Amino acid sequence: MSSKLYPDAQHALAGLTADGITVMSGGFGLCGIPENLITALRDSGAKNLTIIGNNVGCDEHGMWLVLANNQIRKVLASYVGENKILESRYMNGEIEIEFNPQGTLAERIRAGGAGIPAFYTRTGYGTAVAEGKETRQFNGEWHVMETGLTADIALVKAWKGDAVGNLMYRKTARNFNPMMATAGRVTIAEVEELVPVGSFDPDHIHTPGIFVQRLFVGQNYTKHIERRTTRARESN
Amino acid sequence: MSSKLYPDAQHALAGLTADGITVMSGGFGLCGIPENLITALRDSGAKNLTIIGNNVGCDEHGMWLVLANNQIRKVLASYVGENKILESRYMNGEIEIEFNPQGTLAERIRAGGAGIPAFYTRTGYGTAVAEGKETRQFNGEWHVMETGLTADIALVKAWKGDAVGNLMYRKTARNFNPMMATAGRVTIAEVEELVPVGSFDPDHIHTPGIFVQRLFVGQNYTKHIERRTTRARESN
Amino acid sequence: MAWTREQMAARAARELQEGFYVNLGIGIPTLVANVIPDGMTVTLHSENGMLGTGPFPYAGEEDADLINAGKQTITELPQTSYFSSADSFGMIRGGHINLSILGGMQVSESGDLANWMVPGKMIKGMGGAMDLVAGVGRVVVVMDHCEKSGESKFKASCTLPLTGKGVVDLLVTDLAVFEIDRRGGGARLIELAEGVTLADIEAKTDATFENCLG
Amino acid sequence: MAWTREQMAARAARELQEGFYVNLGIGIPTLVANVIPDGMTVTLHSENGMLGTGPFPYAGEEDADLINAGKQTITELPQTSYFSSADSFGMIRGGHINLSILGGMQVSESGDLANWMVPGKMIKGMGGAMDLVAGVGRVVVVMDHCEKSGESKFKASCTLPLTGKGVVDLLVTDLAVFEIDRRGGGARLIELAEGVTLADIEAKTDATFENCLG
After folding, report:
1. Which of A182, A207, B138, B225 could form a disulfide with A167, with the two C-beta atoms 3.0–4.6 Å apart?
2. SS3 C184
3. Cα–Cα dist B147/B115, whole Å
């Protein structure tokens, strides 16, 4: 049997990176990002990348590593704060950012993976987001046409996975990962734990293995927390 | 706290049925159909219903009960075989059937629930399904515009549910139920088992409670099997 | 003379109803979570993929896989469910969230909202705000009535790029509360903060509004 | 003189490749599951919401919640996953299924397929067939070469209402195998069933085809 299992991120990315490709990368902020794959993407040195993701890391973390290594030409994201290099490059015109409303971005990726080339949404009507896009009334309300997104490779972070590529995510680390898994021409998943095939309850699987072409167990997760908020313990 | 819990199907449907309403009903064939709600819908006597479902029951079972009681005016479905009353009424022009490709039907319901008024699909291009619909090229391929579907009430069958409306389905009984849960102006779910709030692993929930307005524990499930296929046990 | 942030949050909290599913934006709207009336069941939605957000964790119990849309560490509740971003915005866009309370830079008398960018300054992005205002059934904006410069933020028409056109139903400022008709029926002044007079509002408001004070 | 149903299924099975995700239609295509080459991993998709369909259950172990798209009771395998109909057709429409093998009433030389209705007869519906032929990367149709009346089912153009236009890549009949270019490049005869001659095919085929027999 051909195996989807790879020993590490570098091997899992081998042969897939090249200058100018489009890369989807899961995560919301630094939550649920494919840390190992991002590092391997940086180490690949591939240039002029288009990155599709809700964010582009934040200072010193996540996709910032690839950005700081001058590998990114264009970004599709909904929010890029807390990222000084990106700010300065964007203001200097060195990098292109296409801002997408977060739900539109999520739906565009879901559509791309599901073979839907375009759909209509109320989101963004009457705003800069609708400029240059077709608008149209349905049920008396104006809508904007948005198109599906796919990528040359999709980098996905899951909690547990098995050798056929079935994945489960954990808590809010799920976010954009499931849709991106469907929208990569090649989808590479890193997991915290590899479980034996058959150990998942098949009703619990979030991403069926059909969407995952390569899989490996990630290492040394830092899981940096952007805003550590806590409450005081009630005294007895 | 306002409760979503009702004692049975009749109480859960109370006040929601009326002549001429549109009803979504989950299931694929007789698998995963809301048996209790279908019986209660029949007993309500509401007429001129539009039924949205993959099928309309089969002889003596499922939505056939409502059909046989002369309550249905129009059907949106992908397959209506094994249903003699429907056949004869359709051939006699007594009932209208809008045939939808199964995936288009599923996506239209998903779109309706997700606030997408229309989307494009390759499915059906160049066929009778595309007649009267807008067609359009994306990426050099012809597509058909399909619209989102919602319903006055959505009748959903789940395996387990809790008092806030969180649902889990079982095996292939999931099918159309999750999308329909999102697309009913009022969604009523019947479950085989009510579990305490907090007993679901929140990563395993298929339908978050936000989509469910009313819930009850169903009784006397027949779960009729349409095609009982088995294999011989290997001799030792 | 004017409401505090906490008082603005408390006024916004009066829009909550039993059983509501609510999305709270960053800033003052976050404070609404602290003033949900006792005995009222309100489920908080976080657009990064969670229904039923709980309080901040105890120190030492933070979970990097469990954050809200403001990227703060939070906790789950017994009723919590997790889902993907696509499903999360399906809830928003599909009209399943009853109420969205969010901050604003400018609101117009026709219900336009600007809260995501200032030309010439770094654009951080709109995040989920455009989806929320376009999809949620009722949108409440909480913001200061005026800029520090004294310029009214409640305007005849927004001068900043819009987040949504005709999307605001209620505006709570530190001075007053306005109902806005998204369908072009205009704005109505319905409440004043303690010690604020109609003359104050008239002096500090660029928008046209009907006086509907009790 | 002509292939049996089993032989047609075996020929269709030669289109399988290691690691493929495959959807099998009702009828002869179902038989393909019995002739998957030993040692080859092929995952069967059932469009009602399952990847990794297993064999029929032992008598007494049928589960009404576990059926395939033909509504037959089946079993699950260690790698099985379940999902909704929307997700299932997302797999199909999104091009994630490698191969669809399905039956046909008529196929045209340009790859049109008709297999869902006959005017004047009861229309049962297209089920998932239109989605499969529109979405799956490679579509193989398995059908008898002729009607019982002797009329060719492989035609210059279909006379029955279409399931899809320009969607068939390979046609396996009981007499021969044809490759079809969806992009208008025409049909090519590539194999004959044992004992069948080119003259037989020419006599029994309405479609124009290029003879590419080895």
Report:
1. A207
2. coil
3. 11
In chain A, the residue whose alpha carbon lies closest to the alpha carbon of D65 is A203
The one catalytic residue among D15, D47, D109, D179: D47
Q: Could you tell me the pTM of the whole model?
A: 0.98
Of B118, A78, A15, A65, the closest CA to residue C69 belongs to A78
B20: left (phi over 0), alpha (psi -120 to 50) or beta: left
Residue count (chain D): 214
B50-to-B17, B25, B186, D74 alpha-carbon distances in Å: 12, 11, 15, 32
Q: Which pLDDT tens digit goes with each residue over A65-107?
A: 999 999 999 999 999 988 999 989 998 999 999 999 999 999 9
CA distance A102 to C47: 9
What are the tokens at C75? 């906790």
Strands A96-99 and B96-99: unpaired
Interface contact B228-D62, CB threshold 8 A? yes
Distance (Å, rounded) from C-alpha B208 to C-alpha B26? Answer: 17
Contact A17, A41 (CB under 8 A): yes
The complex's ipTM works out to 0.98
Longest dimension (CA), chain B: 61
Q: Find how far residue A212's CA is from the centre of its chain.
A: 14
Nearest one of C66, C55, C62 to C30, comparing CA atoms: C55
- For residues C195 and C1, the answer to whether their CB atoms sit within 8 Å is yes
Chain B residue closest to D45 (CA)?
B172
Active site residue C18: no
| CA–CA dist A195, A215 (Å, integer) | 12
Beta strands in chain A (DSSP E): 22-25, 49-52, 72-77, 96-99, 118-121, 135-138, 141-147, 151-161, 167-168, 184-194, 214-217
* Tokens read off for B140: 């050099």
Q: Coil, strand, or helix at residue D187?
A: strand
Residue with tokens 């942030």: C5
pLDDT at A210: 98
- Residue among C47, C109, C151, C210 flagged as catalytic: C47
Residue holding tokens 């959505």?
B154
How far does Cα A102 stand from its chain's mean position?
12
Tokens of B88: 């004869």
